[in-house]
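Q: What changes when uridine-5'-diphosphate is included in the input?
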Amino acid sequence: MEKPHRSHVLILFGTRPEIIKLAPVIHELKARGIGTKVVSSSQHTHLLRPFLKMLDVTVDHDLKAGKANQGPNDVCSRVVAKLDVLFQAEKPDVVLVQGDTTTALAGAIAAFNRGIKVGHVEAGLRSGNRLSPFPEEMNRRLISQIADLHFAATADNRNVLIKEGISRRQISVTGNPVVDSLTNISERLGQNRRSGKKYLNKSDKHNSPLAVSGQIQKILDITSGQRSVLLTTHRRESFGETMSGNLCVLRDFIAKHDDTALLFPVHPNPNVRKVTEEILSGQERVFLLEPLDYKDFIAVMRSAWLIVSDSGGVQEEAPTLGKPLLVLRENTERPEAVRSGVARLVGSDPKRLKKMLTECYEDETWVRSVKKVKNPFGNGQAAKKIVDFLKKNA
Ligand code: UDP
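A: The predicted holo structure follows.
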């Protein structure tokens, strides 16, 4: 163990993608003897719980700030108020937040108002449209204004921050810790072309083997040999006509080609559930699933012929696994995935999805080519680099 570091770090998260990306940082901080308190806002509740266990994260304080039908202002006000009380007891030197959620913004505001340093993991992502994704694009811009230390996943992210007036000295390019998490779980699940042993941290205790759940293994067996499409969609921008149009296109595509299957972990949001039931339930070779824990989701991504998604994190995971991805969005704050050739932007017109699916089916050149692409989001060493920079600067 290294010499104890004087700083006391409080790590805050509230949603599934935040804990996936912060778990390796938490483990690295603890492995290096740095005083660390883990705080969940519980912005997500049911979605979050299985991830804590899988990623071996123990929560020191649960703010229990999540409620049904909450808006960003509800979450923000509750998290700021509860953190303010917690800061009095914990007196952290640094608060680490991740990404662009309302929890992350609230953490940054609460820390700033108490004179506590803020570190921002996954800094410098911009879609270019302040209203899309909403409210995430504004959340991330505001966090950048507040943060003292910026952990940029890529050189492009760093350049965005510099253009916005942030000093180079405050920025470290670390890669994205989603690669650390994904690679660790993928290796524990078994063979994966991209998960070279070089990513494994030998001193890491979080290396015990994992098995896919029985239900998912059964579906993977049934669909083996088929061209399976993995779908995730839950963003506000997709709700309504775009989402129902996309689901109809996917239903028709699967029905037309009997060597295809659709696997869709359906987000609990009622806007997604209702339209999914109406359009996809009872269709042959369409598997509607509850949200999957991370190992099962990774197993499904690994076996997919094609991924179709409006998620942010999936845009980083597809290049990590070398899987082709159609992005159900008008813009992306992760242009590196598109530039690398792994992802293609569909936009919001379902007719375009139809055309792109057909192209992938009829000519597999692109689908096959992405396996060889270099991952623009790092090599699984992000947590180490984040903690190195934190130790030097906090
Ligand atoms: N994910 C998962 N199970 C699922 C769907 C997604 O583990 O059933 C993971 C996925 O691998 C990614 C993260 O959840 O890392 C993405 O979360 P989400 O799409 O909610 O958020 P975003 O990344 O768009 O902020």
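Observations recorded in class: The first strand starts at residue 8 and ends at 13.
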